[in-house]
Amino acid sequence: MKKIYKLVLKSYLGPLLITFFIVQFVLMMNFVWRYIDDLVGKGLDVSVIIELIACATANMIPLGLPLAMLLSAIMAMGNLGESYELLAMKSAGMSLPKILRPLLVIVGGIAVGSFFIVNNLVPFANQRMFEIFHDIRQQRQELEFKDGLFFNGLEGMSIRVGKQDDDTRLLHDVLIFDTRSSNGDMTTTVADSGYIKMSDDKNYLYVTLFEGETYEQTRGAQWYDRNGLRHHLFERQDGTIPLSNLSQSDKPNRANEAQTRNMSELQVLIDSLQTAAEAANSMSYAPLIKEQIFVNDISVLPGDSIRIDKSRFKPIDIYDSIAALGTRDRYRVYNAANNAVRNSRGIYSFDEQSSKYTLTQLYRSRNEWHRKLALPISIFVFFLIGAPLGAIIRKGGLGTPIVISVIFFVIYYVISLTGEKLAKEGTWDSLYGMWLPIFILSPVALYLTRKATNDSSLLDTDWYEAQIKRLRRKIRSRFKKQLRWWHKNRPWRKRRKTKRI
């Protein structure tokens, strides 16, 4: 028995390690191709790139481990079935669950280890990866000037460089549009050449321009005021641009905050977001109507809902009162009402955006919490799908197992993305959205395990060919019988016999 278990373990561990490293390499190359433009030509140290790739590889373990588990299980059991070793074990009285007993122990250990990986290692890798990308983006103001293209990395500014000298970093044909002024003024600067460098503390950009001119357009306080245009030439102009006004793409992404926390931290975050969401929902229509729109009208809301002195007010017919007013008074009333509505709409819009952001973070945090628990179960499900499939098809190698594994993994991935999207939008609860693939694939795994235990020919091509030949013979024999009966009892023969009589 020990020798058989050693044989099964040996046939499984080898394909598991090979397929896991192959899958991780493919996923890592996909990451490299996606972010190769952000990594190449930025003057980054080799250690930074290696650390970033290592963090990305650790982040892809939850995606690559189930696929590796499925592929290795099909390959291992397919090799045992193709070499008739699985048949010899069954003929010796061993059932399929008994043969898979040592593999179930290994898979259980891997599932437990995957939980600690997704709970501890993956959040740390995500946090470190976001920090590295943030540091890379902090350097791009000096490095991402492309010839003939506008650079919009600074809020309120657009910089175009005609040509950049790679050796001296001298910029030629510089054009700068500056709209950072709070009063709407715009400054256009055209220079023959210049330098734009970052300070050592990466908080400022030092701009030095040569042989240029500046156009400054000033606007009046009202739309009907005249606009002014000032123009002056310069031989050299020095300026300092603070980098505190970086665009939102250069700031740390708070939308991925849930991916950098473990389960205990996620639980605290979920509780705080739940409290914030309830508070945001309570500050919706009723406070807005009471405090902004109808604060002085007791005829609209119940008197006990407004803490005011009723004796100071009395119900009035609003439309008749407005019609009785003069033109100026009516304009004043309409203007006050319009301002009140605009203020109310702005307040409600702000509360609505805050509530949407809080709910989005809450849904993502719940999804991440359930994802950490769903990964170990998905590993078990993929193993229970792969091992019976390998025992049924009885083919090893990389051809058929890869095709079947890719099909099942694509189905799992599509279902997972659908459930996660519905849970992220709040249409479904996170319990149903994140566990939907397991709910669907678990009956498939149990069905395949039962078929493989009973030596079913579910995926045996020879069995299907035999059944097709058997069906074809049955159809041919039935057709011949029907043809003989038809020749024997055809209608014109009966009519001919009747005429003779």
Description:
Helix 3 crosses helix 7 (101-138), helix 4 runs antiparallel to helix 7 (101-138) and helix 13 runs antiparallel to helix 14. The chain has helices spanning 2-34, 36-39, 46-59, 61-82, 85-91, 96-99, 101-138, 140-143, 263-282, 285-293, 318-324, 327-393, 399-424, 430-453, 461-488, 491-500; strands spanning 150-151, 157-164, 171-178, 186-198, 204-218, 228-242. The protein is built from 16 helices and six strands. Mean pLDDT is 77; it is low at 245-255 and 298-310. With 501 residues, the chain is of the alpha+beta class. The protein is elongated, with a radius of gyration of 37 Å.
Q: What are the defining features of this structure?
A:
single chain; 501 residues; alpha+beta; 6 strands
Note the topology.
Layout: H1 2-34, H2 36-39, H3 46-59, H4 61-82, H5 85-91, H6 96-99, H7 101-138, H8 140-143, E1 150-151, E2 157-164, E3 171-178, E4 186-198, E5 204-218, E6 228-242, H9 263-282, H10 285-293, H11 318-324, H12 327-393, H13 399-424, H14 430-453, H15 461-488, H16 491-500
Antiparallel strand pairs: 1-2, 2-3, 3-4, 4-5, 5-6
Helix pairs in contact: 1-4, 3-7, 4-7, 4-12, 4-13, 7-12, 9-12, 10-12, 12-13, 12-14, 13-14
